[in-house]
Amino acid sequence: MTDTVTIRRPDDWHLHFRDGDVMREVVPYTARQFARAIVMPNLSPPVTTVELAKAYRERIMAAVPQGVDFTPLMTCYLSDTTDPDDLARGASEGVFTAAKLYPANATTNSAHGVSDVEKIYPVLERMEAEGIVLCVHGEVTSADIDVFDREAAFIERYLRDIVVNFPKLKVVFEHITTSDAVDFVMESGPQVAATITPQHLHINRNAILVGGIQPHNYCLPVAKREEHRLALRKAATSGSPKFFLGTDSAPHLRSAKETSCGCAGIFGAPYALESYITVFDEEDALDTFEGFASLHGPAFYGLPVNEGEVTLERVEHAVPETLPLAGEEIVPWHGGQELGWRFVG
Fold it and tell me: Is 248 designated active site?
């Protein structure tokens, strides 16, 4: 039995840092494990221009612990009025690594998102020409579509057309939750990939609804049926370069989760690698873990693989029920549970 696993230092290809005091306290959790992270732009107001991205990047860098090597990779929040020239300038100057498509009102702070995908076709055309990656929150927001069907509906209504109309555009289907998404990514060409979160590998929708509402298991896209969880586990551990690590770590204070209208989001950053490697161990796929965590993402984004290494060891340890954050408490993913792997460094 393998007792330690050493891999190239990984990257997180999708997460939320928020801003202000929360941002300053959550950045170190990511920086201790990951060399780089694709940072989501859904602040209030959102990060829609080069100048806003530069300022946000500076605030993040100021929160990185001294002596820690970490690089935030910034994304542009797409809206109905996105300026293609500004986006292209940001990419050429090394500010924007990608642009993010949020359907309006799909998730936290997405009210300024895209109301009609065809409205941003001129932006997508420019992105295709400039080689800028499109990151997609793939859910429709129509009231007539069941929340558990929103991802599958987005594929049929919008994503297939995007891939057909812009065949050279690199697309990351983020935080996929269904077998429909797995099938779509596998059937598409090499320009389409996907990130998978730790929570969607561990839980199905019963974890939110059985035994009373479980707010700390609630995120968007919401966890689906067991058949979808199993499809995600198969995809993540398959060794396919189309799937890579993206925690979608989304911190909300405990007071904002345990309320009459709890926020969507799971704070996965503190024990992210331990959570992922547990799944790969359970699936007898430790040999594909480095690819998923450290190699596939850089290859898709056209970035070098990190030089450093990290090690995880097989040892039982308890995850705290809560962590202090911004003068309050936050519940980390796996809070109050035992994990069989521990990040060594």
Answer: yes
